[in-house]
Q: What sequence folds into this?
């Protein structure tokens, strides 16, 4: 039986492996191709042959009930698994996956997580880590920190795994057949696995995983051998080759995989990116560099690129083009020299083809004048690449991903990994559409775009977004399926769901705004009524005030979208009525922190109400202000703000203001009086400069204090004045220093009063004017 | 004769190594090269010849840089060695020339006063007046001789000569020929001819490298030694070699003292202590590896002739001060600050503190 089974041990994402595999498949012409990967992906394989499928792509497996429990199996065009799939599809041979089911691996992981027994690296990395170690398609060889073939390459004296493959390919071009090379790999890997050091330091859990996976693979292989008369080719990570050749019985393997947990799994194709392919890797030896691997793959798959000269020239031309795009003078002549130098270096180092390090050294010397700063500018683009995969329209995708794609085309936004900025003009249909799309995505937790212009929320007609797409946002789309099957529906449902759970007026008010800018009027309506209901319940006046201000701005300036005007106005009226009714009682006995928040909120609310333009509300509010000034229980700062508003709006005449002012400071404790003065003065300095009476009142109050109280009130006074700008403070100083002299000569002759002169330096200090 | 020479060229000092390498060299040699590119790289970086003769390392540092340099010469492209002062540019250039052509003697020292005639060719005016323009009346420069022989020409401190004079080299580099319009002829380069230029990129009083010329060079930037250990190793090795060459009286090995000099130089040069915890003023001197080497050699001479045959703090102190304090006002402050904050408190450095304090 074993004679018909051919094991092809490959290096995941290795172009050299892929080329060799293609040769081997051509030579063997197997009846059936088996690939390391989760069998749930079998149904997806057929789509790989479609012309619209452009790698890098990934198969996404996620738990049906919890999409965040997901794994990816990425493929580049140079991945051996991809090559095997396409080979089998082109020849019409059956092809399927033989690794353990994602149903099992996801269930196992869920169990581990639930039991909080997840290995430490998983805990640290969180979901991010999942892409690093995807099942099936990529490095599942964490049994060893190194790719075993990299180790072999090192033993053979090559700088990295790909250079080693290069050598193998060259050999097979000569005398050896690719089948012999794979046979040799099989022997080497089987031997390597026998070495005790191979399993050293491997966690027991990891070993168990390996054992189970290989048991599944052996089972699948037995089935395939039974079903097909011809040869069977199995494409697996080189490490597994030894395990799959192990002599085990059916019963033994069944026992290993008996009673494993399982969950329902969905599988779909998802676009992947170069950046993710090389995730968490540098540019050194033995790592995944999609840009370089793609170049190697071109070499292997295009006969006309086979000569070292063409190979080096293409790469250096690409480097020069990227350098020119960055504004450096990299001429064709220099690119030619770089190619020659790369070949020269390869010959000095005894290589038949220049490797990545020869290419880099040559570019540095001949194209960048030895300046690695220039080279580092383009390294990311050159070595990693910026490709993002595309999926053929025919491929069934999960509904949200499909809707996402429709929207993406409609709005003409490009999915790119490199961050870019987009300025949207909301007056144009196109701009508005983009904005709505991005806002909706944010509501379902897909952070493709981030609104960075804070001003944009204020009803201006411009929004600036920072866009950066990552493939794992596909997982976000899968997660959002719980909310709905279109972006609009999901965003609306998510918003309403959050609103129902939301605690606090501020959060609800945010959600209302969010729903409005995402053009979800129904969701906004629900949020508004929830907000209304919550407003009645709440006793926190500050929160209510803070909610009114942004809502008023929306009503007043609009968001360039349809607005449920009536509901919004009704909401603001309801909230304001609550505030007006409760503000007096609510201003009794606040602690310092609450007072500070309240006074800020009061000013914003007062301004908002003015903008809103409801006369009855405004009148009521102003009546409350007057009452609060006279309510002795209201905290001093709130009274101070109230009086100041009454004064600024000229609702009270000067005499009443002065009277109220003196009531609040004369004969009060220093703390209370100070807080009052601070609250009263905050905002504009004009009041002190213009209103002489108030100035004298403060003067009188300060002069009347005994020493302890005076010292106690100084910091408060200083804090109040520190809010003014330098010019304002200077003017106050001049006003005080000069004012007495000129205008009050009848009272005190300041110039003759040495005590007054002596006090001036202290005044400077209080005003913060000393250097 | 050579024994009396103050400093012998590389190809003489290492004649045995070169011969051993040439004997066992079975790689292809470019025309007129004395060694194959692989053997040149081995000669510079050290290793073993085919017959087992040990080859000493002339350059300690990144192997790939030297390989790039040799590959550049092998592709008949001119090589420009760029770097800070004292990063072994001239040293590498000399050894590359010795390895490739067997001679490092074709050399032009470029200065602000270098004119085109010193690069291109001059005239023997007596002959010119007597017989008129002829090949015999031409006075050959090292460039012309190198072209005729097919050997390496070394240009030291390329950027010290004016950009217009630098441009004289353009035709030579791109077309490997030197027109002599007076005779309506041209001097063509033999195979094997090439140029190694050195230039430092941060010095005062240098000209811009003409961009037309820059395109015709492959540039290799020689970095300062990456680690303390590497730099110390270089200094100890070179001090030994130079001292031996100068026939200084032998003294006790002073590796530890030299290591201190390197540490001190690195710390002041980088403006921080090795552990990165203390910030320091830096001096106007470059305090390069080359200067550390000369401090070592001077201290050796002083110790051998005037001291007790042992490099100690006292012998080092004057030389260190001389190297660090180039600008009396600024560098004096930097050095005293360094003395007070670092040297004084460092274990086992108290002798150095006292000795330097005495000098400044």
A:
């Amino acid at each position: 039986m074993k004679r018909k089974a051919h094991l092809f041990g490959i290096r995941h994402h290795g172009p050299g492996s892929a080329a060799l595999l293609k040769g081997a498949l051509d030579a063997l012409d197997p009846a059936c191709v088996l690939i390391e990967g989760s069998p749930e992906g079998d149904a997806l394989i057929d789509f790989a042959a479609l012309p619209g499928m452009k790698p890098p792509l990934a198969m996404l497996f996620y738990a049906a009930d919890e999409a965040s429990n997901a794994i990816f199996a990425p493929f580049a065009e140079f991945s051996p698994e991809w090559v095997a799939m396409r080979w089998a599809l082109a020849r019409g041979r059956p092809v399927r996956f033989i690794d353990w089911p994602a149903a099992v691996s996801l269930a196992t992981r869920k169990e581990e997580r639930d039991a909080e027994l997840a290995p430490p690296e998983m805990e640290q990395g969180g979901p991010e880590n999942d892409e690093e170690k995807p099942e099936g398609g990529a490095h599942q060889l964490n049994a060893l920190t190194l790719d075993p073939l990299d180790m072999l390459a090192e033993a053979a004296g090559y700088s990295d795994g790909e250079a080693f493959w290069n050598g193998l390919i060259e050999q097979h071009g000569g005398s050896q057949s690719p089948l012999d090379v794979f046979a040799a790999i099989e022997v080497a890997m089987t031997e390597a696995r026998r070495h005790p050091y191979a399993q050293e330091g491997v966690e027991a859990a990891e070993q168990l995983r390996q054992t189970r996976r290989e048991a599944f693979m052996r089972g699948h292989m037995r089935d395939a051998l039974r079903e097909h008369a011809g040869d069977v080719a199995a494409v697996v990570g080189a490490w597994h080759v030894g395990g799959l050749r192990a002599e085990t019985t059916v019963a033994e393997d069944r026992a290993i995989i008996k009673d494993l947990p399982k969950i329902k799994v969905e599988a779909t194709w998802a676009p992947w990116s170069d950046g993710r392919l090389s995730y968490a890797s540098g540019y050194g030896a033995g790592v995944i560099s999609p840009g370089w691997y793609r170049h190697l793959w071109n070499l292997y798959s295009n006969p006309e690129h086979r000569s070292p000269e063409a190979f080096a020239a293409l790469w250096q031309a690409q480097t020069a083009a990227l350098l020119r795009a960055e504004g450096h003078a990299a001429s064709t002549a220099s690119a030619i020299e770089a190619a020659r130098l790369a070949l020269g270096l390869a010959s000095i180092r005894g290589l038949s083809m220049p490797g990545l390090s020869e290419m880099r050294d040559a570019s540095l010397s001949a194209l960048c004048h030895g300046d690695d700063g220039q080279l580092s500018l383009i390294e990311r683009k050159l070595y990693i690449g910026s490709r993002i995969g595309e999926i053929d329209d025919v491929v069934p995708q999960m509904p949200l991903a499909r809707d996402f794609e429709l929207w993406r085309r409609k709005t003409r936004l490009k999915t790119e990994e490199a961050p870019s900025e987009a300025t949207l003009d909301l007056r144009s249909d196109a701009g508005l559409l983009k904005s709505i799309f991005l806002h909706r995505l944010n509501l379902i937790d897909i952070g493709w775009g981030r609104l960075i212009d804070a001003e944009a929320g204020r009803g201006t007609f411009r929004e600036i977004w920072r866009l950066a797409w990552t493939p794992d946002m596909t997982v976000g789309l899968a997660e959002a399926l719980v909310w709905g099957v279109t972006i609009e529906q999901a965003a609306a449902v998510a918003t309403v769901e959050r609103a129902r759970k939301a605690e606090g007026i501020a959060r609800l008010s945010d959600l209302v705004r969010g729903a409005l800018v995402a053009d979800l009027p129904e969701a906004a309506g629900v949020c508004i009524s929830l907000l209304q209901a919550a407003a009645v319940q709440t006793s926190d006046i500050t929160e209510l005030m803070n909610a009114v201000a942004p809502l008023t701005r929306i009503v007043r300036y609009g968001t360039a979208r349809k607005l449920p005007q009536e509901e919004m106005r009704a909401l603001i009226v309801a909230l304001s009525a609550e505030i007006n009714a409760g503000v007096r009682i609510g201003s009794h006995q606040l602690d310092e922190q609450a007072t500070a928040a309240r006074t800020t909120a009061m000013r914003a609310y007062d301004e908002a109400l003015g903008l809103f333009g409801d006369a009855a509300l405004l009148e009521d509010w102003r009546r409350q202000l007057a009452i609060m000034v006279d309510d002795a229980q209201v905290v001093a700062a709130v009274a101070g703000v109230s009086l100041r508003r009454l004064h600024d709006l000229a609702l009270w005449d000067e005499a009443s203001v002065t009277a109220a002012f003196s009531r609040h400071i004369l004969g009060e404790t220093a703390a209370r009086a100070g807080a009052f003065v601070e609250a009263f003065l905050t905002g504009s300095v004009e009041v002190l400069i213009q209103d002489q009476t108030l100035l004298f009142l403060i003067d009188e109050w300060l002069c009347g204090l005994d020493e302890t109280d005076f010292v106690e009130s100084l910091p408060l006074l200083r804090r109040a004045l520190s809010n003014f700008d330098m010019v304002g403070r200077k003017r106050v100083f001049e006003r005080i220093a000069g004012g007495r002299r000129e205008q009050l000569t009848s009272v005190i002759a300041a110039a003759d009063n040495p005590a007054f002169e002596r006090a001036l330096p202290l005044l400077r200090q209080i005003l913060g004017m000393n250097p | 004769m050579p024994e009396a020479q103050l400093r012998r060229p590389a190809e003489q000092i290492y004649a045995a190594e070169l011969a051993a390498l040439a004997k066992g060299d079975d790689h292809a040699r470019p025309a007129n090269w004395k060694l194959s590119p692989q053997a040149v790289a081995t000669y510079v970086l050290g290793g073993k010849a085919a017959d087992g003769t040990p080859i000493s390392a002339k350059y300690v540092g990144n192997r790939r840089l030297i390989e790039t340099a040799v590959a550049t010469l092998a592709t008949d492209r001119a090589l420009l060695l760029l770097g800070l002062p004292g990063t072994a540019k001239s040293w590498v250039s000399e050894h590359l020339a010795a390895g490739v052509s067997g001679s490092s003697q074709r050399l032009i020292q470029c200065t602000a006063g270098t004119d085109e005639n010193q690069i291109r060719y001059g005239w023997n005016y007596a002959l010119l007046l007597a017989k008129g323009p002829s090949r015999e009346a031409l006075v050959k420069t090292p460039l012309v001789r190198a072209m005729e022989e097919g050997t390496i020409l070394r240009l030291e401190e390329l950027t010290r000569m004016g950009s217009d004079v630098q441009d004289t080299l353009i035709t030579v580099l791109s077309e490997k020929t030197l027109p002599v319009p007076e005779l309506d002829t041209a001097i063509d380069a033999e195979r094997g001819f090439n140029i190694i230029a050195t230039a430092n990129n941060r010095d005062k009083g240098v000209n811009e490298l003409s961009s037309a010329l820059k395109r015709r060079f492959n540039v290799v930037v020689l970095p300062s030694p990456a680690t303390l250990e590497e730099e110390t190793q270089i200094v100890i090795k070179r001090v030994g070699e130079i001292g031996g060459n100068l026939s200084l009286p032998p003294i006790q090995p002073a590796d530890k003292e030299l290591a201190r000099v390197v540490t001190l130089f690195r710390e002041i040069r980088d403006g921080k202590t090795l552990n990165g915890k203390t910030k320091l003023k830096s001096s106007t001197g470059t305090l390069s590896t080359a200067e550390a080497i000369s401090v070592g050699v001077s201290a050796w001479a002083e110790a051998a002739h005037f001291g007790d045959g042992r490099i100690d703090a006292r012998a080092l102190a004057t030389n260190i001060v001389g190297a660090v304090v180039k600008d009396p006002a600024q560098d004096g402050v930097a050095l005293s600050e360094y003395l007070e904050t670092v040297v004084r408190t460092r274990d086992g450095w108290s002798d150095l503190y006292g000795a330097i304090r005495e000098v400044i």
Q: What stands out?
A: The mean pLDDT of chain B is 87.
